[in-house]
Design goal:
The chain is an alpha/beta fold. 48% of the residues lie in helices and 10% in strands. The strands form four sheets. Strands 6-7-9-11-12-13 form a six-stranded parallel β-sheet. Strands 1-4-5 form a three-stranded parallel β-sheet, with helices on one face. Strands 2-3 form a two-stranded antiparallel sheet. Strand 6, helix 6 and strand 7 form a beta-alpha-beta unit. Helix 2 packs across helix 14. It is globular and about 65 Å long. It binds alpha-D-psicofuranose (PSV) and manganese (II) ion. Manganese (II) ion binds next to loops.
């Protein structure tokens, strides 16, 4: 299934007249406040978010999984599906692979396929949270933290192998997320577990090519429910600092206890040059992996305020973060869900770019709390749809991607091509 440029031009046509009027109205309004709408359009046009190779099939819970039909069965097909999302949005030009779920058996073929769709290889993800068939040592009691040196070595070797796959594909970073921890008090010596983890990470770090980065993801609970070795941003950044300049913290929005002030964490990490990666999703209760922006869009906007401010005042030299969607659904068409995610991310980003930072600083310095809140609210309440549509139009994307996906009936075409029972590997 490939969507052509001609198809997109055709479907955009009927929207153009109204869009021109809407965009002019908004840009004139913003101009009177000293904001250049076209500048925001260009920033969004260049903004790319990686799609994880495990997000293309229907997700599930431990109680069940409800297939969607036409799901990809292998890495080649997964990349084709990202190609569909990218053709429609022009903002999903990267894939993040999970090994061993998506081992590129034929690197040349996979790379060529991705190239032809305008997709590059973003961060590689290792997996030491599941045992694989024929694996010598089990990760039941941990991997990089394990009390047994042999298990730690196996987990380190796996990460090295993932880096090697990434090098072959042109990736430049490795994300390590560990399920390591304990389920009951006394099960694990916290200090021993942390030290073992640091030593293992040091061995992985040593294997990183010069121009690579290592992202350390944290999570407070699940699958372990008493303690997680890398439970929070503090532990992650402490490890990153001990490892060296190529190591950074990765923030996954779902990996916080309820009501955590994530925007403050982002601000703090960026103030020290420690933010390397970002996983987008949303949650009501825990690591729900719901569509980003579905539950707390204002929080997402506040997070983007910190990201925008951090990137504009980057004295601590954070890299441009590796952006990735990390969500999973069993009741939505996964491709539609990804497009909803991209839309929510771009909306929050555009609104954050509208914040009058000078006026905000002035109000902050005067302790004018009401003015501070109003400045944020004014930006948040602006309907930025015309800016998003203009960015899509300029980059050759569909101005209304989900409508086009439905009009062309991509899902039916995928079912015709692959059948109802094709299933993807992964969670
Ligand atoms: C773990 O919950 C996580 O957020 C990590 O990023 C994993 O790699 C991903 O989800 C997929 O399980
Ligand atoms: Mn994640």
């Amino acid at each position: 299934m490939k969507i052509t440029k001609k198809q997109i031009t055709e479907v955009n046509k009927p929207l153009l007249n109204q869009h021109k009027k809407d965009f002019k109205y908004l840009s004139d309004k913003l101009k009177s406040k000293g904001v250049n709408a076209n500048k925001i359009v260009d920033t969004l046009k260049d903004y790319q978010i990686a799609i994880p190779s495990w997000a293309l099939g229907a997700g599930g819970t431990r109680f069940g999984r409800f297939g969607y039909g036409g799901e990809p069965g292998d890495l080649f097909q997964k990349i084709s599906d990202i190609g569909v999302v990218h053709a429609l949005t022009q903002s999903a030009g990267a894939v993040s692979l999970h090994i061993p779920w998506d081992i590129p058996k034929d690197v040349k073929k996979i790379k060529k396929h991705a190239d032809s769709l305008g997709i590059v290889f973003d961060a590689m993800n290792s997996n030491t949270f599941q045992d694989q068939k024929d694996q010598k040592h089990s990760y039941k009691y941990g991997s990089l933290c394990h009390v047994d040196k042999k298990v730690r070595k196996q987990a380190v070797d796996h990460n090295k192998e993932v880096i090697d796959y990434g090098v072959a594909l042109g990736s430049k970073s490795l994300t390590v997320w560990l399920a390591d921890g304990s389920n009951f008090p006394g099960q694990l010596n916290f200090r021993r577990a942390l030290n073992n983890t640091l030593d293992s990470l040091k061995a992985i770090y040593k294997h990183l090519p010069k121009d690579w980065k290592l992202f350390i993801e944290y999570k407070p609970y699940e699958p372990n429910f008493y303690s997680m070795v890398i439970q929070d941003w503090g532990t992650s950044s402490l490890l990153a600092k001990e490892l060296g300049p190529k190591a950074y913290t990765l923030v996954d929005l779902g990996h916080h206890l309820p009501n955590t002030n994530i925007e403050q964490i982002v601000g703090t990490l960026m103030s020290r040059g420690l933010l390397g990666g970002f996983h987008f999703n949303d949650s009501k209760y825990g690591d729900d992996d719901l569509t980003v922006g579905a539950i707390k869009p204002y929080q997402l906007f506040l997070i983007f305020n910190e990201l925008v401010y951090g990137m504009a005042n980057n004295t601590a030299k954070n890299p441009i973060p590796a952006w990735m969607i990390d969500a999973s659904h069993n009741v939505k068409d996964p491709l539609e869900d990804l497009m909803q995610s991209l839309d929510a991310i771009e909306t929050a980003y555009a609104k954050a770019l509208l914040i009058d930072q000078k006026a905000l600083e002035k109000a902050q310095m005067k302790n004018d709390v009401v003015a501070c809140q109003n400045i944020l609210k004014t930006a948040y309440n602006t309907d930025v749809t015309p800016i998003l549509m203009e960015a899509r139009r300029k980059s050759g994307a569909a101005m209304s991607p989900i409508d086009v996906y439905r009009t062309i009936d991509v899902r039916q075409a995928l079912i015709d091509e692959r059948g109802m029972d094709n299933a993807a590997t992964g969670l």
